[in-house]
C-alpha cells in the first residue's frame, strides 16, 4: 500500500495563493499517476489535476486551468499543487490520490490510495 499525507491548506482571501503538498510512503512504485481531487460540502468529489510518474503527462480540469499547477519531485516522493488566483468556489477539501494505470486521469475509481485531505477555504 501507499500512504499519502497532504498538507498546506488554509484560510485565504480571493486572489491569494497556496501550495499543497502530498508526501507518499510505502509501496510508491504503485503510484504511476498522482492526482488531486477536491470535495466541497454537499458536492461530489471532483477531479482537479494529475501528473504521471516522469512528469511528462500533466492534465487539469477546465475549472483550474491557468490557475493551478501540479508538479512532482520523485526524489522526495512528493507531489505539489500550486493554487494561484484562488476563488471562493475553490473552497473544498483537497485530496491526493494514487493510481497504477488509470484508463484516463479523471476516472476517480482508478485511484486506489487516498490521503486524508487538507482544507482550503477562500473568502470573498
Tell me about this structure.
The strands form 2 sheets. Strands 2, 4, 5, 6, 9, 10 and 11 form a 7-stranded mixed sheet that branches. This protein starts with a strand and ends with a strand. It is mainly β and 124 residues long. It is globular and about 40 Å long. Strand 7 (68-73) and strand 8 (78-83) form a beta hairpin. Helices cover 0% and strands 52% of the residues. The protein has strands at 2-7, 10-13, 18-26, 33-39, 46-52, 58-60, 68-73, 78-83, 92-99, 113-114, 118-123.
Could you name the key traits of this structure?
124 residues; mainly beta; four-stranded antiparallel beta sheet; 0% helix
Biggest sheet record: 7 strands, mixed
Based on Cα principal axes, name the global outline. globular
Helix proportion: under 10%
> Uncertain regions: pLDDT < 50 for 5+ in a row?
none
Beta-strand content bin: over 45%
**Overall mean pLDDT:** 94
How many extended strands? 11
- Radius of gyration from CA coordinates: 13 Å
Terminus-to-terminus distance: 39 Å
Amino acid at each position: 500500500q501507499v500512504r499519502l499525507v497532504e498538507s498546506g491548506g488554509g484560510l485565504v482571501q480571493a486572489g491569494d495563493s497556496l501550495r499543497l503538498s502530498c508526501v507518499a510512503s510505502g509501496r510508491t512504485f504503485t503510484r504511476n499517476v498522482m492526482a488531486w481531487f477536491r470535495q466541497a460540502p454537499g458536492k461530489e468529489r471532483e477531479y482537479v489535476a494529475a501528473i504521471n510518474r516522469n512528469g511528462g503527462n500533466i492534465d487539469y480540469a477546465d475549472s483550474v486551468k491557468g490557475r493551478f499547477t501540479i508538479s512532482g519531485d520523485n526524489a522526495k516522493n512528493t507531489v505539489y499543487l500550486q493554487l494561484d488566483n484562488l476563488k471562493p468556489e475553490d473552497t473544498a477539501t483537497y485530496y491526493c490520490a494514487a493510481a497504477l494505470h488509470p484508463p484516463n486521469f479523471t476516472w476517480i475509481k482508478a485511484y486506489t490510495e487516498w490521503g486524508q485531505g487538507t482544507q482550503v477555504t477562500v473568502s470573498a
